[in-house]
Amino acid sequence: MGAVTKEDLMELKNISQPVSGDKEIFYLETQINQEKNRYETKIFSLNKQTKKRKEWGDSGSVNTAIQLSPNKKWLAFLSNEKTEKKMQLKVMSVEGGKAFSLTDEEEGVQSFKWTPNSSSIYFQTSKSTKNKEKDSEKKELPEPAIYDEVTYKLDGQGILDREKVFQLKKIMLSTKSSELIYETEKSVQLNYVGKDESFVIISDERNKEDEWDFGGTVYWLDTETKKQRSLSESIPHGEFSYGAMNASEDYLLLAGHDYTYGFVTQTKIYGYNLQTNQLSCLTTELDREIGDVLVGDFQQQTKGVEIEWLTDKTYLYPVSHQGKLQLYKGEIQGAQELLFDEPVHLTDASLDRNSMKLVVGYSTFSNPSELAEIDLANPIMRSLYNPNEEYMASHQLVEPERFWFKGADDWDIEGWYLSPVDDTKKHPAILYIHGGPQVAYGETFFHEMQTLVHKGYGVIMINPRGGNSYGQEFVASILNAYGDKDYEDLMLGTDAVLADHSNIDREKLFVTGGSYGGFMTNWIVGHTNRFRAAVTQRSISNWISFYGTSDIGPFFVPYQLGADLTDTDALWKMSPLAYAQDATTPLLLIHGQEDLRCPLEQGEQFYIAMKRQKIETKMMTFPKSSHGLSRNGLPNLRMKRLEAIEQWFSEHGDTK
């Protein structure tokens, strides 16, 4: 069996966004084009009877956001065929033939929804308000960026362009004529188009007048009068997103919470009765996180498992629980039933109402991506197509050992241990800490972890307190206490793995992690010397400057740490930089130059602090790279990053 290498990332494919037609199951398939250094996404279909595959779409490098028309005669999607940058709306017959363009928007199309009668499509775009003639005269001269709002930048986008308006348009399939439905100065999300088109459902900011009121809600927008009303007015300080509208259009499902525990408040299912205009929580007694919080490094172009109506009174929804994504059936009267509970990560799902089967994309620790279906009458998953079948047959993908241990305060903590391929002799091990922290490791594929075990390392993956999918108390326990009991959980988890695996060389332990995992790596090297070397990625080192430089700092810091710039002593005590003088561990710092979530200055501060201690230290910064470098960064830079991590640990552990 062949070894898994970093270059294998170019060979592997992932499936996403499956949707079931009358004869075909349509889905996306994404693979890296190494020569062009980009991700390419194509549309395929799988014939339900013959199982033959067929490619659809056009010559664009990215064809995505596939939607079947309600009458299932047309396939609509977004493509960058001409521009290679701006996505435009395309449509083609499911009987075959060439795709044709519906839009030619200067700023491209962001999203769209079919009308119920399949005759037209509502779509979102934007329009620049700049004086183009004036701009062309000054194109040789640089201009200052001016902003006067708290949120003026976003990771992955940069400084926000305020000289534009956002538009909701409708375009006819037959004539390609379009009309403007709604225009606003800030971006909104189109969720649903009413059957008679008298209204649409959109998501927007909760309080547009107060920029410090962080949160969002769902609005009913009258398409004629342009008046809108919030559907969560009864919970004025909540965070809500669209779930699903039932077929009778008299009941709407939302996903949201009331900020009782700030950002870490569990997401619940809420029902909005459109006849009484009342909002009520339907999952009050369920101590589970609604939605997907599992982290991996492989999936591309996924939408996730969305809330679906089964009947006018019952619905299906995803739940993250102990490293898995479960499926629950709910009733608007409040009853909840667990339907599907397997050790997999459901990355996408779409309901075929004719057969009442879910078409899903899924992943496991040892299976990158597969297309399958789940019969809701007997919820067992049946495989339909594996794009990596040949690869998996010729490569040894390691299954981890799942374990539980007693963490701080005798809490039950879950983890996974991936043994190296050759587990018969002494070997080094890496404690790999996830980001968030309100996410979770779980039953999903990590290309990076597989390459590390084939390099001879054991990999320890732990979900310490503060992570999600273990109940409200568990995820909220980290508030105002970063680096406390969560640090103890990680150290006790490492001890538990060492106790159960005598082949691990205790003198060759390493630690790494990104984002919160980078914060914790910085914290660890300032509090213990048990690790031989460390790699901190896209890290946090100083909560005081993070507050003023991160795109989410002004909101994240007070919610998570219980302090702001009026209490710098409290923020400093939770900052790894405060303990850098106690560090002795050789450290490699990895950071994206365009990271606005954990800005580059966070890594730079810790780098200089370590150099001041005369500790062996190296820093690597990556151009054209935001916070998601390890997951969706430029392919060649992802390879350079992984190579640097392997080399750093090899140099300090003699693992060659």
Give the fraction of residues assigned to helices: 10-25%
DSSP summary: helix tally? 12
Low-confidence stretches: none
Structural class: alpha+beta
The CATH homologous superfamily of the domain at 398-651 corresponds to Alpha/Beta hydrolase fold, catalytic domain
Please give the alpha-carbon distance between the first and last residues: 20 Å
**What's the architecture of the domain at 398-651 in CATH terms?**
3-Layer(aba) Sandwich
Beta-strand residue fraction = 35-45%
Cα gyration radius (Å): 25 Å
Average pLDDT works out at 95
Largest sheet: 8 strands, mixed
CATH topology of the domain at 398-651: Rossmann fold
Placed side by side, the strands forming the largest sheet appear as: 32-33-35-34-36-37-38-39
Number of DSSP strand runs: 39
Query: What's the shape?
Result: globular
Supply the key terms.
single chain; 656 residues; Rossmann fold; five-stranded antiparallel beta sheet; 12 helices; 16% helix
Short characterization:
The protein has 656 residues and is an alpha+beta fold.
Question: How would you describe the overall organization of this protein?
Answer:
With 656 residues, this protein is an alpha+beta fold. It has a domain at 398-651: Alpha/Beta hydrolase fold, catalytic domain (Rossmann fold). The protein is 16% helix and 37% strand. The chain has 12 helices and 39 strands. A hairpin with a 6-residue loop joins strand 7 and strand 8. The longest helix has 17 residues, at 635-651. The two termini are 20 Å apart. The model has no long low-confidence stretch (mean pLDDT 95).
